[in-house]
Task: inverse folding
């Protein structure tokens, strides 16, 4: 559960956050973190998402002794397939 | 932390490794992209501001010029791949301004000795991902269809890179 205090954000930001999180909630791809719930009360937004415990990409790579081209290929393929999913769903086009 | 995926960043629309997390600590764990767009709100709420614009290594030149489309994500992935294979960013500098100048110039090379360990196929894919002109740059689909994946993934042995490549990766992760 993640909590965002509304008083730290402007109404414009709140609207953008709501829009963004609602889009995210609709996405379903193995390489995109899943948002399960998004709700709010007077003071706060609440975001319930998948829990990821493995750490950041480069942290893990730099501490792993056996990293080669094959692992790099497996890694970048996952990232690009998430990107492809987003592009197919046209969710990047908001400037 | 607030997580979500990299959609619709009005500013700072770049995919970066800080926003790509492993699901678990297992060796074969899958990766998940989270969002920087929303984590921004959290940071401000708790006065835990990182650098305002973060690390500009991954940002596409056309994003800096504020005229871009979805191809900017492929550029960022190309930078990530370049770093994974060499341990150093393709566009570097002593400070953010220098880095961004180099991104705008778009010139990079495979001159470092470490690249002699990396296949031509991998370097070729990077060239398509770091193509300066977004129109000519590979789409996500083209990247996924690149022969490098088939060739390297069918190879049963994954020759590990020299240790220093890996330790270098920590060095520039955070400015």
Result:
């Amino acid at each position: 559960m993640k909590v965002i205090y509304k008083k730290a954000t402007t109404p414009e930001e709140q609207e953008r956050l709501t829009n963004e999180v609602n889009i995210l909630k609709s996405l379903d791809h193995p390489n995109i973190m899943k948002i399960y719930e998004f709700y709010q009360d007077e003071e706060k937004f609440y975001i319930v998402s998948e829990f990821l415990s493995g750490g950041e990409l480069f942290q893990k790579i730099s501490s792993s002794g056996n990293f080669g081209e094959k692992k790099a290929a497996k890694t970048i393929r996952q990232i690009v397939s998430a990107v492809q999913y987003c592009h197919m769903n046209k969710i990047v086009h908001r400037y | 932390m607030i997580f979500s995926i990299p959609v619709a960043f009005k500013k700072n629309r770049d995919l970066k490794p800080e926003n790509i997390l492993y699901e678990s600590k297992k060796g074969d764990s899958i990766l998940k992209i989270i969002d920087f767009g929303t984590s921004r709100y959290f940071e401000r709420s708790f006065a835990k501001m990182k650098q305002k614009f973060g690390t500009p290594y991954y940002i596409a030149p056309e994003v800096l010029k504020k005229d871009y489309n979805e191809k900017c994500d492929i550029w960022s992935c190309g930078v990530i791949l370049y770093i994974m294979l060499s341990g150093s960013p393709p566009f570097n500098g002593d400070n953010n301004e220098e880095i961004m100048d180099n991104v705008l110039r778009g010139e990079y090379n495979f001159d470092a000795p470490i690249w002699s360990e990396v296949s031509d196929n991998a370097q070729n894919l990077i060239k398509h991902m770091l193509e300066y002109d977004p129109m000519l740059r590979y789409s996500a689909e083209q990247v996924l269809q690149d022969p490098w994946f088939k060739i390297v993934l069918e190879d049963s042995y994954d020759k590990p890179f020299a240790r220093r490549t890996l330790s270098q990766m920590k060095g520039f992760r955070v400015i």
